[in-house]
Protein THEM6
Amino acid sequence: MSWLVLLLILYIVWDVNYFIRCIFTVLGGRLFQRKRKVTETTTIYGLCTSQDVDIFIQHMNNARYLRELDFARFHFYALTNLYEQVRNRGGGAVQGATSVRYRRTIPIFHPYKILTKLVWWDDKAIYLEQQFVTLTDGFVRAVALSKQCLTKCDVNELLKSYPEAAQKPQMPEELKLWLDSIEVSRQKLRKDD
């Protein structure tokens, strides 16, 4: 009985579902899907369930979009072997910034996919574009830009180990504007400090 209580307490205190889903996402990708080039788009599927909806029980809440983006990034790292390459260099990955543009809600019980693509990089970070697309109509419901800071690792050097990334793509205009906005915010916060 005491083990059951302990397990129940751990389940309540820790977000066990998150860790289980991480394991299944990474292992499922590695075991059952082909490896992808770092410049290819990866796809992960989901379903808006009753655990994902907002207070009106009609569509996915904003926090769930961000959580689903995490799983899609883990999946991208697993299929491209990028995270393993970072770890081999003694580094890690940290979310530096995210910008999400919501275009239309994902209704409850609607299946969707998240497309993840590396769109640019600099010496310290990679930049991903992620799209939520509903399967019933192919509509892009939300678009996210993500800055993934890679620690203890020169990203330009790392990506040179991928032949398909020998030529750095041109920075997308929306990414440039977003990074400019981040820089303005950084300067403002420095003045406040």
Observations:
- The chain has six helices and five strands.
- The chain has one domain: 16-192.
- The helical segments are 2-13, 16-32, 62-80, 82-88, 155-160, 173-192.
- Residues 16-192 form a domain with the Thiol Ester Dehydrase; Chain A fold (CATH 3.10.129.10).
